[in-house]
């Protein structure tokens, strides 16, 4: 960077006076930086504050003064700050490129030198602002800095598909939350977005009951979406039980009262103790033997139900009993 010195100021005054004097007094004069001053004939001229009797001496002194001081460059080059840039991801930050400084200029140097200096982050995240500095320097080493702001701001949501729906028979069959069922999570910036279980929500119904299971998918910029998996609980399997053992009685009065404990092997895929209940007795309408069909129901919590039957046969095979009458003795046949 050039400095204004007393010698330089003095040279400027001398140069100015010389130019004015030469133009007004010396015929056919040519002058300028680094150019010899020539005149048509030897004369004495008033140049500045001195009188020179030799045109050659005047030429050399003035040319030397112009070379030494009139050409001292103290003016900074100029350039505009490059246009700001916004990118989604850190990987999208462009490499330093001096051509983004496209209007550099200088009073003396035709093509000032543009150079990358440094990148400085503001330390924030999404958005993060990076200040990129370029220097512009002329041949006299006068220099300025221009800055370009690069904003890293990921506004794009990650993506993922809803996991496949699941149907189970029983509440006990509901699978535990498993983030691996979200298999295609992706993001524009984050290689592996974070998948997390959020909650299970029931529709409040029963058989079928639908549970909506929610997972979140979140990228490093905290952009997040939810995906859902439906889990349907639909018990379509009937309980099981064997028919109670048949019973045979002699008389109607011997028919046992209904007793649900005669159904002793009831079972179900979802509940431990299905409900057993007496339904009805139905006679075949016959007599001795008469067959009564006794029905019990076996029902699970999903209201799946079966019937089992017990046959009760009334078959009186027992003879009646009686004693022989007392003997009678009569006198005559007419007395019998």
Protein described:
The structure is a single chain. The protein has 336 residues and is mainly β. It is 11% helix and 30% strand. It is built from 2 helices and 14 strands, in the order H-E-E-H-E-E-E-E-E-E-E-E-E-E-E-E. Strands 3-6-5-4 form a 4-stranded mixed sheet, with no helix packed on it. A 4-stranded mixed sheet has the order 7-10-9-8, with no helix packed on it. The protein has a 4-stranded mixed sheet with strand order 11-14-13-12, with no helix packed on it. Strand 8 and strand 9 form a beta hairpin. The chain is rod-shaped and about 190 Å long. The N and C termini lie far apart (171 Å).
Descriptors for this entry?
single chain, rod-shaped, 2 helices, 336 residues, 30% strand, mainly beta
SSE pattern: HEEHEEEEEEEEEEEE
Strand order of the largest sheet: 3-6-5-4
For the biggest sheet, the summary is:
4 strands, mixed
- Multimeric status of the protein: single chain
Strand content range: 25-35%
What's the overall average pLDDT, rounded? Answer: 86
**Number of helices in the DSSP assignment:** 2
Shape: rod-shaped
Radius of gyration based on Cα positions? 57 Å
Question: What low-confidence regions span 5 or more consecutive residues with pLDDT below 50?
Answer: 17-70
- Helix/strand-derived category reads mainly beta
Q: Can you give the helix content as a percent range?
A: 10-25%
**How many angstroms does the end-to-end distance come to?**
171 Å
């Amino acid at each position: 960077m050039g400095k204004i010195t007393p010698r330089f100021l003095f040279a400027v005054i001398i140069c100015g006076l010389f130019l004015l004097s030469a133009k007004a007094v010396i015929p056919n004069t040519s002058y300028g930086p680094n150019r010899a001053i020539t005149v048509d004939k030897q004369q004495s001229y008033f140049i500045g504050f001195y009188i020179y009797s030799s045109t050659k001496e005047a030429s050399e002194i003035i040319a030397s003064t112009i070379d030494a001081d009139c050409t001292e460059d103290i003016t900074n080059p100029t350039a505009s700050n490059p246009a700001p840039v916004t990118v989604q991801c850190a990987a999208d930050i462009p490499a330093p490129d001096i051509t983004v400084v496209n209007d550099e200029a200088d009073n003396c140097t035709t093509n000032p030198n543009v150079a990358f200096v440094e990148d400085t982050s503001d330390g924030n995240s999404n958005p993060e602002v990076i200040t990129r500095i370029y220097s512009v320097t002329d041949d006299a080493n006068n220099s300025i800095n221009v800055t370009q702001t690069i904003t890293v701001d990921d506004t794009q949501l990650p993506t993922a598909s809803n996991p496949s729906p699941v149907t189970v028979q029983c509440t006990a069959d509901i699978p535990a939350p498993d983030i691996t069922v979200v298999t295609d999570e992706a993001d524009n910036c984050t290689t592996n977005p974070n998948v997390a279980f959020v909650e299970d929500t029931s529709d409040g119904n029963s058989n079928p009951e639908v549970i909506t299971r929610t997972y979140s998918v979140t990228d490093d910029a905290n952009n997040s979406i939810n995906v859902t998996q439906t889990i349907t609980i639909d018990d379509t399997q009937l309980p099981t039980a064997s028919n109670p053992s048949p019973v045979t009685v002699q008389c109607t009065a011997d028919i046992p009262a209904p007793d649900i404990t005669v159904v002793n092997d009831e079972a179900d895929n979802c509940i431990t103790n299905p409900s057993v209940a007496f339904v009805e007795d139905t006679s075949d309408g016959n007599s001795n033997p008469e067959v009564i069909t006794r029905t019990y129901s076996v029902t699970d919590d999903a209201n799946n139900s079966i019937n089992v039957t017990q046959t009760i046969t009334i078959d009186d095979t027992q003879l009646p009993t009686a004693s022989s009458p007392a003997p009678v003795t009569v006198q005559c046949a007419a007395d019998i």
